[in-house]
Amino acid sequence: MTIVTTLPDRRLLLVHAHPDDESIGTGSTMAHYAAIGAHVTLVTCTLGEEGEIHVPELAQLAAAAADQLGGYRIGELGAACAALGVTDHRFLGGAGRYRDSGMMGLATNDHPRAFWQADLDEAAGHLVEIMHEVRPQVMITYDPDGFYGHPDHIQAHRVATRAVELAAADGVAPAKVYWTAMPRSVLEAGLDHFVETSDNPFAGIDSVDELPFGTPDPEIAARIDATEQHAAKEAAMRAHATQIPATSWLYSIAGNFGAEFMGVEYFTLAVGEKGPGSGPYGWEDDLFAGLALDGPDRSPVAAAGLR
Question: Which note does the record give on the cofactor (predicted)?
């Protein structure tokens, strides 16, 4: 069913690969914009069926056993979105249309429903339909390497990029497209902090040059300080209990840096014009910076997307 509704003048679309990616990478940004009244649409490309399970009593949900983890993670994602204040969430092509491909080089990459094997134009078409519905001015997804090389993250980038191309022909493409990023300066600070700890996520790494991610600070376009939403991000991460154990280093560093670690997120700008910023590199503090926001958009929106 489609209804006509008035959407807010700020509309943000995020394209993520698996449940939990949204909370870890962009949770505070999502919560921040939802809290100030923007329409935040999250599109998740798979159910995360191949994820590890960190809750022992749920071990039989694994892909090698009952293969029911994906269904369970739908519930986790729903709880995470509730914590972030996000009410518009969709799975690309519908829940289960595309399957988690697993890590690069595994046999799961060849599963007939693996997202890695998805027809690019078909998958992008599903995303274009959503763009027609919500008319986002800003989209967030991953860089061409999927931030760290996971095939589904890479495919999410490809699909989102192709969707923008197709949507442009219809006049509904977002004006700005951002990629998630982590400044090298932040990573270097993390290396220094963890060197003496027992829960060191960088164990065996002596330089940020050895990491599969990290963006030179001058290439960062936006720094979103959503420290007021750090608790929402942590709650959303805890909702993904099968994937993020309570002993995770993510919570350890949050205990040390708190709101700053959980609440500040960074992005590079792939499409569009950079708006006004500040600091030595002119980082934006608003993803909508420089855009002419001409009031609410009255567009047909799928009722299912408003739950």
Answer: Binds 1 zinc ion per subunit.
Nearest one of 49, 142, 140 to 95, comparing CA atoms = 49
21 belongs to an annotated ligand binding site = yes
Closest CA to 242 of 62, 98, 27, 107: 62
226 closest CA partner among 53, 85, 70, 69: 85
Q: What is the pTM of this model?
A: 0.92
Residue 75 CB-density burial (10 A; 0-12 exposed, 13-18 middle, 19+ buried): exposed
Is 153 annotated to bind a ligand? Reply is yes
Q: What is the pLDDT of residues 89-148, one digit of tens each?
A: 999 999 999 999 999 999 999 999 999 999 999 999 999 999 999 999 999 999 999 999
Q: Which residues contact 291 (CB under 8 A, 6 or more apart)?
A: 137, 138, 175, 176, 275
pLDDT tens digits for range 234-284: 999 999 999 999 888 787 666 555 567 789 999 999 999 999 999 999 999
